[in-house]
Amino acid sequence: MNTSSGAKLAGLLLGTFDAMVDVVVAELDREGHPGVTATHAFALEAIDDGAQSASELGRSLGVSRQAAAKTIAALEELHYLDRQDDPGDARRKRLLVTARGREMMTIGARTFDALRTQAAEQVGIRALENFEEVLAILGGKSDSREASTRSS
Amino acid sequence: MNTSSGAKLAGLLLGTFDAMVDVVVAELDREGHPGVTATHAFALEAIDDGAQSASELGRSLGVSRQAAAKTIAALEELHYLDRQDDPGDARRKRLLVTARGREMMTIGARTFDALRTQAAEQVGIRALENFEEVLAILGGKSDSREASTRSS
DNA sequence: GCTCTATTGACAACCAGGTTGTCAACTCAA
DNA sequence: TTGAGTTGACAACCTGGTTGTCAATAGAGC
């Protein structure tokens, strides 16, 4: 009960994310894509958005390239991704989203969008847009190292 | 760029949570509480809020009681928690937050609140309150109409 | 052309925070 | 008194990260 409003805010952010992801993962499972995790979906999205190698994917996701390589291996295992030798650089393996991968992305995006639409219906599109605006500001700048030191 | 608005929303939720937690963990480290994770802080909060045993903590956090027990062991290791035999039930070990634990909670809460205050200064208190209202609605119910599998 | 440095992907060991399964001790209602 | 449910402990395991190391390769500087 003495939970701070700030901590409550943080908890709600995580809880809401989790709730959305749960629905999307369940829907993917239901539509023939079992075993997909949020990590997979976001990684495939990043690859399709331009990350062309494990190193690039790691940078794009903000994780080590070893972690990215593990995710890539999992995506390849699930046939969402093909790896080909890069003709211009023998060190690299180019990443190509397969048709099945594209289908998974489509379902994921559709389900995420359905959740957002549902949220808009609950609170009104105007409130949701304001919400997203505030969220972008909050998420955009995470500096404020000294903002916390005082105010004690 | 073809990231769906819904997925973008989810990504921002997680990103904002992570950004907040990073600041809080860094501040705790700076103020003499190294090695504390978000899990620790939220668990201690839950214990102080009334979770009196590993089983209760697990229920309260939504994880297995074995996972809760691991967190409790970590908190005890860090001297944030004492365990005592429950006089009324020999199966249980009562959980007591130590003075140091209380100090850690205070710093965490203060830092979380400072972040929230900072957010309010950026977007206006009214916008933040609307934001939190929408967030509570979104987080509270995670049902989807055609994409629904089960609520939870 | 040669060499030095940076980058890449692979591999291994490890860690944190979860999971399930199992167990003995214990409580409590029938 | 007994039997079902709860509790904490322990073990094995999984996932998604981490760091460290390595050989192969690319590319710039000379």
UniProtKB/TrEMBL annotation, chains A, B:
InterPro entries: HTH_MarR-typ, MarR/SlyA-like, WH-like_DNA-bd_sf, WH_DNA-bd_sf
SUPFAM superfamilies, per database record: Winged helix' DNA-binding domain (SSF46785)
Pfam family, one: MarR_2
Molecular functions per Gene Ontology: DNA-binding transcription factor activity
Domain HTH marR-type: 6-140
Gene Ontology process terms (BP): response to stress
Protein name: Transcriptional regulator, MarR family
